[in-house]
Write a structure and sequence with these properties.
single chain, 275 residues, alpha/beta, seven-stranded mixed beta sheet, three-stranded mixed beta sheet
Length: 275
């Protein structure tokens, strides 16, 4: 059963046929990514973009978000499409991978700016109890705690040092418990990452994910641009707003360049009709 209110959904359907059903999951904004859903529908998919926190009956922050939010959205897509996929960005990529290892219906995942571990949910204050970002069947998904004593050294801040320091201070056992068991997902996986990502280490994470899957005999497509940052703009999408309260990395045009490089792999994984 879907946990989603209709006001937190945006459907975008192709002009002919159903195509692959694609769940579109935005990052830390939690917003309904209507533009990406519309782009994928124009390319031949049935796309469903959702709000995953801050909506009706949802957590107000990205913490203790039920992964059933995403499996429920897949229920809606499954009513129209025989093939299912998720396209997720950043926190949305984290959600996509965690969902993929739990829902065998998924045939493909595109994880943009991914992480190889689950992270702590957002706290409102430094003295808040530590809570998971995700739950499954009412239980917390193991996570790497964020180092609350960390302070940024730049203005605006780059959060990659926070994630790197948190991974180091958590210790190997905690990190291993929080690793996303990507070898359980046997479908098609595309990872898109920038080597200059200033939000978190998406490129090293992509390589780690690919190595774990390779050890299990599973192929992974990694699209990486050493000079790109956290954002990725797919062909036909608008450039991201440069006014951000944090650093994202990447040189001029990097987001568009990485999106163009990734697009052929995305088309193949989602089985979009080629023109």
């Amino acid at each position: 059963m879907s946990l989603l209110d209709p006001s937190d959904l945006h459907w975008a359907r192709p002009s002919a046929g159903a195509g692959t059903g694609v769940l579109v999951v935005a990052g830390s904004s939690g917003r309904v990514d209507t533009a990406r859903a519309d782009l994928l529908a124009a390319a031949g998919a049935t796309a469903l973009a959702i709000r995953w926190f801050g909506g009706v009956g949802q957590p107000t922050l990205p913490r203790e978000v039920p992964l059933e939010t995403f499996t429920g959205a897949l229920d809606l897509l499954a009513a129209e499409c025989d093939r299912l996929a998720v396209v997720g960005l950043s926190y949305g990529a984290e959600a996509a991978l965690l969902t993929a290892v739990r829902d065998p219906r998924l045939d493909a995942v595109v994880a943009i700016a991914p992480t190889d571990v689950a992270w702590e949910g957002q706290a409102e204050a430094d003295d808040d109890p530590r809570r998971p970002k995700w739950t499954w069947r009412g239980q917390p998904v193991p996570f790497v705690p964020l180092r609350r004593t960390w302070t940024p050294r730049t203005d605006p801040p780059s959060y990659r040092p926070l994630y790197d320091a948190s991974r180091e201070s958590a210790g190997p056992a905690t990190v291993e418990a929080a690793r996303i068991p990507v070898e359980r997902f046997t479908g098609e996986l595309v990872l898109v990452a920038g080597g200059d990502d200033r939000v978190w280490g998406s490129a090293p994470a992509a390589r780690t994910i690919a190595a774990r899957r390779s050890a299990a005999g599973l192929p992974t497509t990694v699209v990486e641009d050493a000079a790109a940052g956290h954002p990725v703009v797919l062909p036909g999408e608008d450039a991201p707003d440069p006014r951000r309260p944090y650093r994202v990395g990447g040189d001029d045009g990097a987001a568009e360049r990485l999106g163009a490089a990734a697009w052929p792999a995305i088309v193949r994984a989602l089985r979009l009709p080629t023109r």
